[in-house]
Amino acid sequence: MFQKFPFKELFLDEVRKTPGMANCHAHLDRAYTLTPEIWEQASALMEEKWVINRDIKRKHTDESVQERLTYCIEDFISQGVVGCRTHVDADSIVGMLVVNAAAKVREKYKGKFVLQLVAHPLEGFLNEDASGFDKGKMDLFEEACSVCDVVGGLPSRDRAMEGGDRKHADFLFSVAKNLGKDLDVHIDQENNPLEKDTEWFLDAAVENGLEGRVTLVHSISVACQPEADRKRIYEKLVSGGFNVTVCPKAAVSMKQHREKMAPVHNSIAQVDELLAHGVNVSIGTDNISDIFVPEDNGDMFEEVLMLASAVRFYDIAKLAEIATKNGYKTMKINP
């Protein structure tokens, strides 16, 4: 008698041995903003989507953001998720609107669901002519971080100024140290062998005394590097007590640099190698039904299934650990 391999059932059996899953990366403030018109623009480059997304964000209201987050959280709870770390935009487009609305939802679910907020500077900190950093943007971000649980970041957003990515990182380190909060930063998203931000960011975090307080989201471009370089980076991740959060659907949907040469790999951090070297790897849904990942529906098991396929990693017990215990470690929670 033929039967389908019960991957989901076996995975959930492992999850049931724990308090539940942890979604370690999301953008719930823009979840379910997809429309037929936006769908038609979903094939644009990531940098182009940053601009398109501005009009979407301008339609946010306190009520709509709260409703969106609440809908997502209830869906997560039905899946057996006990906590979510979501980035919330804090920039010149929305000001503090999204952060303040999300903080109300965090309070609403206190004791029932762990909602961690990460201030996300999607517009970066550059002034209009990219000649320097805008104090108003920096002050707004620091205010947002004081309300949120974790300091976010997107160093690549400020590459328009020479050294802007590193100055962006330096500002993040300063805010994290001033507020005594951890960092959760988007890094090396392009799957590009010329993008080498993970290593210098790790080195700078150590120089700033932030060992054990940094989570890197994506780190896809590390997979483009030669084996010796990858191993060196993995060792730095372990020695610094840093985490890596992968978002499989978002990662494999990145535009590919077909003309660039790199070791053969799929567009995702090499989770099998990371685990073998002792790196704490967690998982998240990232964007849900929005312009960035239009086909994602926020299903944690689908992310795990994509991870298993993309990395050819089928150890169900370890996949469950990534979605549960490793996530608790990343979020520093004890559900």
Describe the model.
This protein is an alpha/beta fold. The chain has a single domain (11-331), classed as Alpha-Beta Barrel (TIM Barrel). Helix content is 44%, strand content 13%. The chain contains 14 helices and eight strands. The chain has helices at residues 7-15, 36-39, 46-57, 62-79, 97-108, 135-147, 164-179, 197-207, 227-239, 248-252, 271-276, 300-311, 316-323, 325-331; strands at 21-26, 81-89, 114-120, 150-153, 183-187, 214-218, 243-246, 280-283. Strands 1-2-3-4-5-6-7-8 form an eight-stranded parallel beta sheet, with helices on both faces. Helix 9 links the parallel strand 6 and strand 7. Helix 1 packs across helix 13 (316-323), helix 4 (62-79) crosses helix 5 and helix 6 runs parallel beside helix 7. The N and C termini lie far apart (41 Å). The model has no long low-confidence stretch (mean pLDDT 95).
| Rg over CA atoms | 19 Å
| CATH-defined topology | TIM Barrel
Which sequence of strands runs across the widest sheet?
1-2-3-4-5-6-7-8
**Count of strand segments:** 8
> Structural class of the helices, strands and pairings?
alpha/beta
CATH class: Alpha Beta
For this entry, what is the oligomeric state of its chains?
single chain
Distance N to C terminus: 41 Å
The percentage of residues in β strands lies in 5-15%
What is the total domain count? Answer: 1
Uncertain segments: none
Indicate the mean pLDDT. Answer: 95
Overall CATH architecture: Alpha-Beta Barrel
Estimated helix fraction: 40-55%
Q: CATH superfamily name?
A: Metal-dependent hydrolases
What does the main sheet amount to?
A: 8 strands, parallel
* Secondary-structure element pattern, one letter each: HEHHHEHEHEHEHEHEHHEHHH
Helix tally equals: 14
Envelope shape: globular
